[in-house]
């Protein structure tokens, strides 16, 4: 029986409840999760050399929003090998298009996916990114 792959995932949100929900889902399958309450904290972790297979981030957050976070990642050439996945309630096409400008690997709308569907989709995106 082949070994199941486990991944290290960074989840960035300003909603502690959602951070917990998604963290539990990933951990139940043996994945390592680092939850970050806000983008500034996440950026510090990445700059400190923490590597992630995937980074899930919300768009609407206080201080630094998801777009600013992605801009900083790209400007500073950080997390190049991480799958960058937007996980937000911002489902408007203008938001999707703006996020795509940052060369994201996926865009998931929280309201239209239950946590287990998000987990499945994130794992597919990581697998696809790793096979490129």
TrEMBL record:
Family matches, as CDD domains: REC
GO BP, one annotated term: phosphorelay signal transduction system
Superkingdom classification of source: Bacteria
Gene3D superfamilies found in the cross-reference section: 3.40.50.2300
InterPro entries on file: Bact_response_regulator, CheY-like_superfamily, Sig_transdc_resp-reg_receiver
Positions bearing 4-aspartylphosphate: 58
The keyword Disulfide bond belongs to this UniProt entry's keyword annotation: no
SMART domains assigned: REC (SM00448)
Full protein name: Response regulator
Keywords assigned by UniProt, alphabetized: Phosphoprotein
Database matches in Pfam families: Response_reg
Annotated ranges, domain Response regulatory: 8-125
Organism: Candidatus Campbellbacteria bacterium CG22_combo_CG10-13_8_21_14_all_43_18
């Amino acid at each position: 029986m082949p070994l199941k792959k486990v991944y290290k995932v960074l989840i960035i949100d300003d909603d502690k409840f959602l951070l917990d929900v998604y963290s539990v889902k990933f951990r139940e399958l043996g994945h390592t999760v680092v939850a970050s309450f806000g983008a500034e904290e996440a950026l510090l972790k990445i700059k400190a050399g923490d590597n992630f297979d995937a980074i899930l981030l919300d768009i609407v957050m206080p201080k630094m929003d998801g777009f600013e976070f992605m801009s900083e990642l790209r400007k500073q050439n950080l997390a190049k090998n991480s799958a960058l996945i937007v996980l937000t309630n911002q489902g408007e096409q203008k938001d999707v298009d703006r996020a795509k400008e940052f060369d994201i690997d996926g865009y998931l709308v929280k309201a239209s996916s239950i946590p287990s569907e998000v987990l499945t989709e994130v794992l597919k995106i990581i697998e696809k990114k790793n096979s490129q």
